[in-house]
Design a protein that fits this description.
Layout (H helix, E strand, L loop, with lengths): L1 H10 L4 H18 L4 E8 L2 E8 L22 H8 L2 E5 L9 E7 L11
Antiparallel strand pairs: 1-2, 2-4, 3-4
Helix pairs in contact: 1-2, 2-3
């Protein structure tokens, strides 16, 4: 993760801590909630940073819960944090058949904070 963190810091000078947090949450979610391999993908294009994690489980991620529901728990806030910090986020199967896992992603720099696109 240290090489990824270094790459993110160089690419996103305005929000490196947020980018690192989102990358850690997405990869942590993939590792914690699925069996099998996981991978991080980072793409920087036209002022937009897309951070995503692929895992081998084709099941969609559980929808993020409001923070208030998970205040007393040690887990369950990761995707809510992604939703709160990213400009847009989502998930998709990487194959048409849907049996090759899923890709959960988020973007920074894709829209002004007040004009977020729906995920």
């Amino acid at each position: 993760m240290s090489e990824t963190a270094s790459t993110l810091r160089k690419s996103v000078r305005k929000t490196p801590d947020v980018a690192e947090l989102l990358a850690a949450e997405l990869v942590g979610h993939a590792v914690r909630h699925t069996k099998g391999p996981a991978a991080l993908r980072v793409r920087w294009a036209a002022g937009v940073l897309r951070v995503g994690a692929w895992d081998a489980d084709p099941s969609p991620p559980e929808p993020p819960q409001p923070f208030e529901r998970a205040l007393d728990r040690e887990d369950g806030r990761g995707l809510a944090m992604v939703r709160a910090c990213a400009d847009v986020w989502g998930w998709q199967p990487p194959a048409r058949e849907g049996n090759r896992g899923k890709y959960v992603w988020c973007e920074l720099g894709s829209a002004p904070r007040g004009e977020r696109r729906p995920a």
